[in-house]
Amino acid sequence: PQVNVVIDRDKAHTLGLSAESIEDALDSAYGQRQISTIYAPNDEYHVILEVEPQYMANPATLALLYVRAQSGKLVPLDTIARLQRTLGPLAINHSGQLTAVTISFNVAPGVSLGKALDDVKRLANDTVPATISTAFQGTAEEFQSSMRNLGILLVMAILVIYIVLGVLYESFIHPVTILSGLPAAGFGALLTLMIFHMELDLLAFVGIIMLVGLVKKNAIMMIDFALDAQRTEGKSPAEAIFEGSIVRFRPIMMTTMSALMGTLPIALGIGAGADSRRPLGVAVVGGLFFSQLLTLYITPVIYTYMESFHDWVTRRRGHQTAPAETGSRIVGEVKRTEEEPPRRRAVS
């Protein structure tokens, strides 16, 4: 059982009362309102404003409550409001100490969960008042959390690969050359998903992360051969990468076609439950096909520019350190000459 206080707003406005002032009076009487704190030498005490316990047992005592109007006069509550006895819920759900209501929804066939969440969020923003906060729970909350962390996962994967390649080739610039094909692969994957009207869901994002490992092997094959040709045969960067592109063209095409043929059944949706995995296959096939067309031309160009940049930095460092090293050697020789004791000649 519960009692609703129904305010006669016209009469309350005539007497100079607002709904807020009536709610404040009820809160002060029954809401255990803290109005002050008493600080003692060893403890502190909260001052709580409320009516005496005997006035809380019977709803009829609400008629004894007075509300102060804007003019300063006290108005009895039963003059501007009436009590309505009704039945309330057995339990009230809370979320974060706030009263909460759960609204469940299902996803229609063929609609991704990401699109459904966007539609629900837009509907909530248009209909729910600003004083009510909304949040997703359950599967929707887990989906949002996973999608939020996928970008960080992709960045960390690229960073780890850069560190490993830097240690392998003992260089800061050649890992950038190897990873230069990733933008083309990502663009190809997103473009293919848009062409086939597919969402960038969790499995499609997993396919993009797979492309990081599949695409960089093309550049590794060419750059590994070019670096070995430069160090052992003394070839120029342009000659080394050109020969590496020709020699490694066949294994590059073999590995790429093997990866394409392996993921093509997933992209075509062959097998039980393949519809949920199709975005992964489409992203991998599109990214591999698009990157294969570009990396064979982009990687050699970036390699030659990176080698030119490396030579320019090396020459610049050599010009800056050469005078300092010469001066230090001269000073060292002068000091040794001054500190060396005079030699005596033996006279026979």
Report on the architecture of this protein.
By secondary structure, the protein is mainly alpha-helical. 61% of the residues lie in helices and 10% in strands. The strands form four sheets. Strands 1-6 form a two-stranded antiparallel sheet. Strands 2-3 form a two-stranded antiparallel sheet. It has a two-stranded antiparallel ribbon with strand order 4-5. A hairpin with a 4-residue loop joins strand 2 and strand 3. The longest helix is centred in the C-terminal third of the chain and has 62 residues, at 278-339.
List the helices and strands and how they pair.
Blueprint lengths: L1 E6 L1 H6 L4 H12 L2 E7 L4 E6 L16 E3 L5 E3 H4 E6 L7 E2 L2 E2 L13 H15 L11 H31 L4 H5 L3 H14 L6 H32 L3 H11 L1 H20 L9 H62 L9
Antiparallel strand pairs: 1-6, 2-3, 4-5, 7-8
Helix pairs in contact: 5-8, 7-8, 7-11, 8-9, 8-10, 8-11, 9-11, 10-11
Share of helix, binned: 55-70%
Shape: elongated
| Number of helices, where a helix is a run of at least 4 consecutive DSSP H or I residues | 11
**Major β-sheet strand ordering:** 1-6
SSE string, helices as H and strands as E:
EHHEEEEHEEEHHHHHHHH
How much of the sequence lies in strands comes to: 5-15%
Number of strands: 8
Structural class: mainly alpha
Distance between the termini: 131 Å
Radius of gyration, in Å, reads 39 Å
How does the major sheet shape up? 2 strands, antiparallel
Low-confidence spans: 324-340, 344-348
Features:
single chain, two-stranded antiparallel ribbon, elongated, 8 strands
Sum this structure up briefly:
The chain is built from 11 helices and 8 strands. With 348 residues, the protein is mainly α.
